[in-house]
């Protein structure tokens, strides 16, 4: 195929990273098979036509396509949403229900919530406390052998829950932040179960973070001397600074910007959020607004990066995508066991690129 304006797929990996970057909060710790990304500017310079080169992981198509079809909603996959009484848990149940995924009527919560029934999307879900978790999980897993647990509980429960899933052998998607993350990975690695672990489930936000990482790696010092202002607004219940903001700032630091994390302007007052930040009143209790403003040393140049999220649907939909992704990996008996949202994004990109290339091939065959 000529190197003009074609979208080319090759059996390698696109936008993968090398090593274990401690700064990247959504990076998995092993078996990433990562490599440098690159943009090609080959072709006739006079025509100024820039070829776009994508690469994708090659797959045995019959097996791959069979696995894709087998994990479509309604094909045996069930999820158990732990933390179903929380706002994120309820949002995930709604997204899963809309996608046609089977939701088991069982969930784990705190001791105070034990015995309660939570109704979401017309489904009544019984909440079980800490003392009966192992027996309940084993029973549910026996009834639903293709069960995947989704965890949106509290930071203090992360490691205990991971230990439980690992002991019973239930694969899981961990959306809860906090806990001892090194211990979390070690637990899953030791048990050799499948898991998607990511404190940021919004695929588009993850894609933005990945793009920032690539820019920082390929153009270190590009913003040397620039000053940075960062403002982030979240619901009043979030007391600490956003991990996403910290990840973006660390990229700017690699790009040459001097900035202390303590300088982040945290907006938690509802009145300021509405009047100053522009948060819709109906989303004051659940939003994530981020603004990064860069200014040149002589103040003649400025750049702004902004991403605003209202509600929780972006995270809930990403979680359901992670569930279906993990189910497919389990069906394929993939060697890699621990994944993150970059893996989920990469898989979707590869599938879409494959579809596009087939269309190009069909078009080219008909024209030939």
TrEMBL record:
Catalysed conversion reaction: (S)-2,3,4,5-tetrahydrodipicolinate + NADP(+) + H2O = (2S,4S)-4-hydroxy-2,3,4,5-tetrahydrodipicolinate + NADPH + H(+); (S)-2,3,4,5-tetrahydrodipicolinate + NAD(+) + H2O = (2S,4S)-4-hydroxy-2,3,4,5-tetrahydrodipicolinate + NADH + H(+)
Pathway(s) of this molecule: Amino-acid biosynthesis; L-lysine biosynthesis via DAP pathway; (S)-tetrahydrodipicolinate from L-aspartate: step 4/4
Protein family according to the UniProt entry: Belongs to the DapB family.
Alphabetic keyword roster: Amino-acid biosynthesis, Chloroplast, Diaminopimelate biosynthesis, Lysine biosynthesis, NAD, NADP, Oxidoreductase, Plastid, Transit peptide
Entry's EC annotation: 1.17.1.8
Domain of life: Eukaryota
InterPro entries: DapB_C, DapB_N, DHDPR_bac, Dihydrodipicolinate_Rdtase_pln, NAD(P)-bd_dom_sf
UniProt source species: Brassica carinata (Ethiopian mustard)
UniProt-annotated location(s): Plastid, Chloroplast
Chloroplast found in the keyword field: yes
Function (record text): Catalyzes the conversion of 4-hydroxy-tetrahydrodipicolinate (HTPA) to tetrahydrodipicolinate.
GO cellular component: chloroplast stroma
Protein name: 4-hydroxy-tetrahydrodipicolinate reductase
Domain Dihydrodipicolinate reductase N-terminal per the UniProt entry, residue ranges: 77-201
Main location per the UniProt record: plastid
Domain Dihydrodipicolinate reductase C-terminal: 205-345
